[in-house]
Design goal:
Layout: H1 25-47, H2 58-63, H3 70-91, H4 104-114, H5 117-130, E1 135-142, E2 147-153, E3 163-170, H6 177-180, H7 184-191, H8 197-205
Bound molecules: manganese (III) ion.
Amino acid sequence: MANSYPFTLQALPYSYDALSPVLSEETLHFHHDKHMNAYVDNLNKALEPCGRFHDCTLESLLTRLNELPESAQTAVRNNGGGVYNHQLYFSTLTSPKTETKPSASLQSAIDRDFGGVDKMFAELKKAAVGRFGSGWAYVVSDKNGVLSVCSTPNQDVPDLSKFVPLMTVDVWEHAYYLDYQNRRPDYYDAFITLINWDVVSNSYENIK
Ligand code: MN3
């Protein structure tokens, strides 16, 4: 998609039934076509009167929120964050039948910083399940390739001037309610089988 105003809804890089049975076709239609689409539309509406910012990338807008007109700041934070988070979320998933694994350098960073993939996923689970209300949990890398887990409320994003988010779990109920109702831990356990390590490894390789 164009990475500046007007933003467009990025198509899913797989079919709507590709993540089934972990996430149903129905969930993907609602989540992508309705929820994510609304963030795109509302981001464009908020930016429409802010001509000076029409060439800015999404990442740049989200790291310079306080430079925007005050009347647009909250809407860009919420909806720009919503677009950023959902792009990351959907683009780093693949069918549970597809076998991918971390690249050698990502694997060694995971071993060094977490003590292995299982421990990384356990820490990410704590952040995802422990997030009160709606929000996100991430595995991020700093600019030196050091990995950590963090979480944000609402549609906030990690500090993009310091961190590159590599993968994320959407813990808004709209992401899982049709398939898991209130069982967020079950959603998490199934969700991590969808991670597309090829995409995640590629974004890690591009940091250094
Ligand atoms: Mn969502």
